[in-house]
Amino acid sequence: ALDGDVGHAKSGSEFAFKSSEGKKFQIHLAGVSAPATGSSRLEALAQIRSHLGEEAHIQAIAEARRGLVGWVYSNGTEVNEAMVDSGWAWYDPTSVQDDGLLQAQERARAAGRGMWKDPKAESPFKAELESLQAKATPAEAAPAEENPAEAPVGSDPAEAASSTTSAEEATAEPMPPPEAPKNEPAPPAPKKVEVDQSSPQA
Length: 202
Fold this sequence. Notes:
- By secondary structure, the chain is of the alpha+beta class.
- 30% of the residues lie in helices and 23% in strands.
- It is built from 5 helices and 8 strands.
- It has helices spanning 38-51, 79-86, 99-111, 126-136, 157-171; strands at 2-11, 14-19, 24-29, 32-33, 55-64, 67-74, 77-78, 90-91.
- Strands 1-2-3-6-5 form a 5-stranded mixed beta barrel. The chain has a two-stranded antiparallel ribbon with strand order 4-8.
- Strand 5 and strand 6 form a beta hairpin.
- The radius of gyration is 39 Å and the shape is globular.
């Protein structure tokens, strides 16, 4: 991490920086890309200058051409997210992948801030974002096979289980009597006793 003085802003995503040890760097905002031409470039420059104070705290994550790529904090603000949230810079997933920056861009677009005032505006990193979202989306689960014995919606599971068992018992074929051991006569079948219900019981 570095602390030091903020210098000239070159664009909405890059500025000069002098560390407290006297070393000079060009600081590139991690995950942020800003317009390089036209009126949008001027708007982005004005925006980053409004977020940067005289001093800044840098959490570098990589080296870049003539400088460092990192997270920038100044005046109590995370400048990376503030720039994307303003709508005058894009989230660049090729630099770093960060949910906070993605959400900031979605907020800016939904609110129509900055470059997103144009409803036809698109991020130059649209293809990369779609690719990342496709990888993050889990594959759809295969539909479960229908179970014919499944209880209808709203029925009591206990009753459904009971009715299913009764139906199975009703349609099951009767079990044959067990075979008698070889060389032994089979036991006689039990006699059926009929009860006369015409006369009252004592």
